[in-house]
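Below is a filled-in request sheet from our internal design queue. Each sheet records the structural input a requester submitted and the sequence that came back. We keep these sheets so that new team members can see what a complete request looks like end to end.

REQUESTER: design group, bay 2
PRIORITY: normal
MODE: inverse folding
CHAIN LENGTH: 500
BACKBONE (tokenized):
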């Protein structure tokens, strides 16, 4: 594989959690796979005062603690030699002169012709300020073969209006083609495999529509709670934190039309078309179409689990949802009338991310099931995490007399590919950004279209406090009310096990 061109990667917020837990371990993995540029420098910037040596030590321990590949001490040392640090205040315009000087000095060590990536691993309040000051100091190089790139972390706005404002501001200083909005779900190997499964296999595509699919279920369940992030999460909630971005991206990959080619424009055009086709949720239908809930105290294996309201930094009596389930429709010829059920929540039974395509049942039931678990509908389960793979559920004859049928699985696990190494999401995204490939990053119009879809739900919750906020025991599969979203008799959410 071709290595990216020599570059300097500048991380704003380098003393924060994201840098040490995700970004540096991901860069180290790429380094170990010899996928980093021949010459590169990582320049960490932050308010915390420290020198290069101190920063290197912190990052080295981060690799040991959080890295998928921890390497050997000499490898870590060799990698850390590429790291530098400057203590600056990113909200002070004058400090950008220091940054510029530092970059000029580093260019002497690593000549890269101004091939810079600016990564904003900062709180969102900085997302408008940093690009403005970068531009003011001429650090937004445009128009060359590799222009400067600006990576924006989530959350990208908290509403349609704030996302629009942020887009306009960013686009004042950087061209849209230079802006890389992160949705780490798109960096997951099995999410990308969706495209290959759909478009590299002739058998699925003819069935992938309203004539054969009864419903689609998308789940991202977490067993952890809000893990000390109460101060942030309590103002955000599950709909903004997970559904507006990650779950809608998954929905778009399931629902999109085949792109004409595998490139950023073609794929992202198809994604945005899906968002535009989502049937708007009317205020009067919100309570029926969207279920919100909070976890209540419970116990698991004899251990008590706190309820949402008992978590640190959650406001007393908070009505922030830690769970949301929604029924969506994609109003186009392919999907007319097919419900897409999407759900996400904290403190559910297992950590599972999966997509289930439920096919329509046979027109006539001929055989007797051996148990009530017979799949009258074949299912294709796409496992994104853990146990990455694909399971096809179908029915077989039980050996012996008569015609008794039983549900069986045809299983493909990524782990069966032997030593196939599954890249961490950030690894793939950083590599793509270094190569100037924005396919797996969210485009400005898509972010706005996704907010446009969820904004009315937030407004309905805000204006109608009588819309129920259900509760579910910590460690369960969520509120029973979520089952009532489902159309049809005996239809319920799948209760995926960690290993299926
Ligand atoms: C983040 C959310 O975007 O995704 C977190 O802010 C959530 O609340 C995380 O825990 C889940 O990511 P993953 O990759 O573990 O499914």
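RETURNED SEQUENCE:
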């Amino acid at each position: 594989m071709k290595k990216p061109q020599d570059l300097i990667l500048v991380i704003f917020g380098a003393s924060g959690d994201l840098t040490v837990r995700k970004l540096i371990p991901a860069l180290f993995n790429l380094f170990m796979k010899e996928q980093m540029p021949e010459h590169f420098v990582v320049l960490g910037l932050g308010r915390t005062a420290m020198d290069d040596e101190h920063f290197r030590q912190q990052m080295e321990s981060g690799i040991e603690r959080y890295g998928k590949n921890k390497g050997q001490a000499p490898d870590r040392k060799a990698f850390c030699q590429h790291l530098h640090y400057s203590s600056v205040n990113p909200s002070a315009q004058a400090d950008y002169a220091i940054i510029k000087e530092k970059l000029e000095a580093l260019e002497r060590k690593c000549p890269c012709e101004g091939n810079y990536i600016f990564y904003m691993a900062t709180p969102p309040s900085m997302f408008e300020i940093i690009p403005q000051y970068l531009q003011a100091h001429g650090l937004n190089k445009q128009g060359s073969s590799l222009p400067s790139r600006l990576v924006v972390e989530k959350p990208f706005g908290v509403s349609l209006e704030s996302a629009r404002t942020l887009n306009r501001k960013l686009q004042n200083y950087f061209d849209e083609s230079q802006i890389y909005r992160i949705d780490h779900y798109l960096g997951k190997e099995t999410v990308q495999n969706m495209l290959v499964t759909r478009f590299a296999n002739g058998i699925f595509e003819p069935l992938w529509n309203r004539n054969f699919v009864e419903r689609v279920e998308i789940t991202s369940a977490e067993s952890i709670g809000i893990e000390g992030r109460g101060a942030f999460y309590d103002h955000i909630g599950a709909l903004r934190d997970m559904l507006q971005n990650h779950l809608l991206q998954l929905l778009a990959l399931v629902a999109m039309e085949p792109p004409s080619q595998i490139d950023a424009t073609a794929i992202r055009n198809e994604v945005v078309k899906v968002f535009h086709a989502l049937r708007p949720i009317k205020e009067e239908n919100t309570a029926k179409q969207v279920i919100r809930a909070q976890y209540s105290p419970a116990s698991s294996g004899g251990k008590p689990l706190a309820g949402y309201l008992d978590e640190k930094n959650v406001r007393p009596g908070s009505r922030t949802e830690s769970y949301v389930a929604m029924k969506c429709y994609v109003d186009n010829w392919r999907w007319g009338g097919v419900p897409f059920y999407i759900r996400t929540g904290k403190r559910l039974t297992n950590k599972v991310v999966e997509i289930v395509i439920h096919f329509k049942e046979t027109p006539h039931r001929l055989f007797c099931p051996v148990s009530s678990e017979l799949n009258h509908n074949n299912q294709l389960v796409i496992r994104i995490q853990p146990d990455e793979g694909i399971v096809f559920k179908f029915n077989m004859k039980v050996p012996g007399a008569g015609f008794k049928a039983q549900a069986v699985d045809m299983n493909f696990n990524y782990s069966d590919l032997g030593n196939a190494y599954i890249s961490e999401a950030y690894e793939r995204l950083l590599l793509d950004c270094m190569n100037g490939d924005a396919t797996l990053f969210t485009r400005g119009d898509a972010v706005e279209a996704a907010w446009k879809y969820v904004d009315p739900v937030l407004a309905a919750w805000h204006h109608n406090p009588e819309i129920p906020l259900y509760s579910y025991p910590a460690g369960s599969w969520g509120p029973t009310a979520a089952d009532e979203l489902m159309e049809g008799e005996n239809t319920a959410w799948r209760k995926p096990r960690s290993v299926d």
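SHEET NOTES:
- The mean pLDDT is 93.
- The pocket of 6-O-phosphono-beta-D-glucopyranose is lined by residues 154, 220, 222, 241-242, 353 (CB under 6 Å).
FILED BY: M.R.
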